[in-house]
Write a structure and sequence with these properties.
single chain, 402 residues, alpha/beta, Rossmann fold, 2 domains, 4-stranded parallel beta sheet, 16 helices, 14% strand, binds uridine-5'-diphosphate, transferase, Glyco_trans_1
């Protein structure tokens, strides 16, 4: 696997976890458990880490490409050629993989470059698409200029594209990636960690709305705070962002606090700061409902984690959330950026115990039946096997051309 900016070690270590880190870590660990040899290549962003680290049965290889320091991911493109070259040399030295699975578009560029040089087939998961980001963030989007054309090209040259939800399939088809090159396999959830039974974070008497994620504008926290004004008595707990002790200095957290005060709900909003992965289930279990209200969301792990803890989800009807949340069965979908509609749904749900309990039970069933990592990793392993076989079938042609 190639995950240029998102190391699985960050997810396993604790607080600095986004969706891609968590996805790669869980997928690699489960594939290893199922008997596969898994190696994850990620960029070295710290001079002191060893070149190879073994964790949960798989290896993480730190690739020296660019300075050994944390760089914004939008600055990594110039280092992908060095990344590819180093990885190809490593494959030659240690043995060719049967398949390379790239996560995010820049990993795809490195994987295709090394794959072409070494005759290794490439499977691509985008995790996020530049065109969607640009549509929602406009000039605030700092992605490299040609990201969307690279993503389109990748879709045409890799051996298989994994899409994680129907919305992504629609987007890619619209960009000109042929649908028959895609296989839909969603992300998974760790059902051993995220389960309904176990300790819960302390709470008072107010109904609790929980929201979880990196503190970035597109996650829709402002709309949620505005909605809270229309949900009497309820409290909103925001999990994520910088560590608690740095929250006071975080400009966005400060803006959200000011907004809460302006809306008259300052006393009903709590920011916990970053929480370690192992501690996340306690927060989900403490909630009456999880609100996931982004403007857009390529996949969205937090609703799945809440569902696996038996918690109903109110989500905006965007991206992957329209696949995971079954409206009226495991929770409810609302239009994005509409605090009024959000308030109405939350108000009704928090006063309807029967509906909440039945949504929670259905959410748990759905998480367990569809999204467990053993199932999802098994489906991806089937894709790897099919891809490797199809690629091997073309060996004669490739040799003739060479
Ligand atoms: N997360 C965490 N600690 C926090 C906040 C979030 O471990 O303080 C985890 C959360 O449990 C989830 C991931 O970060 O696994 C967020 O993934 P999601 O797909 O929801 O959002 P992304 O960060 O990829 O935009």
């Amino acid at each position: 696997m190639i995950s240029e900016h998102a190391s699985p070690l960050a997810a396993l270590g604790g607080v600095d976890a986004g969706g891609q880190n968590a996805h790669v870590a869980a997928l690699a660990a489960e594939l290893a458990r199922q008997g596969h040899d898994v190696r994850v290549y990620t960029r070295r962003d710290d001079p002191d880490v060893p070149e190879t680290v073994t964790v949960r049965g798989f290896e993480v290889v730190h690739v020296p490409a660019g300075p050994p320091a944390v760089l914004p991911k939008d600055d990594l493109l110039p280092h992908m050629a060095a990344f590819a070259e180093w990885m190809a040399a490593d494959w030659r030295a240690t043995g060719m993989p049967d398949v390379a699975h790239a996560h995010f578009w820049m990993s795809g560029l490195a994987a295709v470059t090394a794959g072409r040089a070494c005759d290794v087939p490439v499977v691509q998961t985008y995790h996020a698409l530049g065109a969607v980001k640009r549509r929602h963030q406009g000039t605030a989007d700092t992605s490299p200029e040609h990201r969307t054309s690279y993503e389109r090209q990748l879709g045409r040259v890799v051996d298989r594209v994994i899409v994680q939800c129907h919305d992504e399939e629609r987007e890619l088809t619209g960009m000109g990636v042929p649908r028959e090159r895609m296989t839909l396999v969603p992300s998974g959830v760790d059902l051993d960690l995220f389960r309904p039974d176990g300790p819960a974070a302390p709470r008072g008497g107010r109904p609790r709305i929980l929201t979880v994620g990196r503190l970035v504008e597109r996650k829709g926290y402002a709309e949620l705070i505005r909605a809270l004004a229309g949900v009497p008595d309820a409290e909103l707990v925001v999990v994520g962002g910088p560590p608690a002790e740095q929250l006071a200095d975080d400009p966005y957290a400060r803006r959200l606090r000011d907004l809460a005060r302006e809306c008259g709900v300052g006393h009903r909003v709590t920011f916990t700061g970053a929480v370690g992965v192992a501690d996340m289930p306690r927060w989900y279990r403490s909630a009456d409902v999880l609100a996931a209200t982004p403007w857009y969301e390529p996949f969205g792990l937090t609703p799945l984690e809440a569902m696996a803890c038996g918690v109903p989800v109110v989500a905006t009807a965007v991206g992957g959330l329209t696949d995971t949340v079954v409206d009226g069965v495991t929770g409810e979908l609302v239009p994005p950026r509409d605090p009024k509609a959000l308030a109405a749904v939350l108000r009704r749900l928090l006063t309807d115990d029967v509906r909440r309990v039945s949504y929670g039970a259905a959410a748990l069933d759905r998480a367990r039946l569809v999204y467990g990592w053993p199932t999802i990793a098994g489906r991806l392993a089937d894709v790897y096997a099919e891809t490797a076989h199809a690629f091997a079938d073309t060996t004669d042609v490739r040799e003739a051309v060479a």
